[in-house]
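Appendix B. Chain record.
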Amino acid sequence: TEKGFTADEIGRIEHNLPGVFELRHAFNVFVVGEEALQRLGFTADEYTSFDFDLLRSLGFTSAEIAEANDWICGRQTIEGAPHLLPEHLPVFDCANRNGKYGERFIHHTGHIKMMAAAQPFISGAISKTINMPAEVTADDVADAYMLSWELGLKAMALYRDGSKASQPLSAASDDGESDEEDATVTRALDTQKALAWGRFPAGMSPTQAYSQAGTTRPRFLLPARRGGWTQEARIGGHKVFLRSGEYEDGTLGEVFIDLAKEGATLRGVLASFAIAISKGLQYGVPLEEFVDTFTFHTFEPRGLVEGHPNIKMANSIIDYVFRALALEYLGRSDLVQVPPADGDLPEPKKGLAIDAGIQLDLTDAVMEEDIAAQRQAARFVDGPGRSQPRPQRARVAAAADATTASVQSALSDMMGDAPLCDVCGHITVRNGSCYKCLNCGNSLGCS
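Structure tokens predicted for this chain:
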């Protein structure tokens, strides 16, 4: 009350106390409410951060919070309880230490010996996991499997406490309490800002991070009627149809890859791959990431490309697809064998703007249930000036185009009858009595 809470707010906190694991779980924005925290002088950025500790921010020390937590929420262990002698405790032992004060637990060999006692009477294996504390070593794990084999167990599974970022049962919270002088030192990463574009704390997956933030990464659906283009080409004699789907602003949103007269397996794999790429694009993965990852992948069918005006050699169907997409949507003339003329170079398309304060122009193309998720996710974007996952490469592409033209002009006398590079497909230049590829550095005929 002295800190400024009303009777109704204190009532909500007390109502939640019986079900919380520790005291600070009852002192947060979801229980107290935003209006109360704003009245107490906290900003939305402060109380929505994962590092926000209301009790500590109100001026309570770590010792005071720990003492109150033990009194109200309990010590999470029976050890130290009155009227219990040390010889009484083994009957209460569990698989793990209980709470941050507990010391006793059943050793993992106890689990194994109990299973071994029952194994002779069971025809199959026993569905039982032995639990090991977090501080066990690799040798302890090896010894556990050896003992299980020696005792005749048909199967044994083990779990080391804390080996996963999320687990069904935790004996103690990972609150990372520090001394009073270190109270201002919080996590190494600011989780709220990390949610902006894929920077998460160590040990936390993107799904867990967004789940803890109370939001989901938005998916930008394409309009029902969409633009795009179709490119027919032959790669190593195999006909390939590459189709694209675009947002209303011309940004790439989906890809289709189809083969003519091919077996069901290859067509199915390529179709599934195209769906995965399309999903990634719609969830905000920059096209540059896909281009940098999948170009120069080499496997059959590969070889000469017929039907595309700029790409004449591809290491694989995937290599061809992302060379074509890079040229069309990123202006990457460095990935094709025949750069387009200056006036024919496609202008790089702009990315999706999902930054806070920027009006989304895709409302009509997005399903109603995704609009709220987009607005919620916009709160976590890193900085007011970020309008796309990664900056497009318009100026880089233009510079690369000019550089390519000047290099080709200077080396035109060195190419002659030089063969194509057997690694990346670019034309090579004479290097002494051999040939060298200026694109990937491969040397033909020289060590």
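Further analysis of this model is presented in Appendix C.
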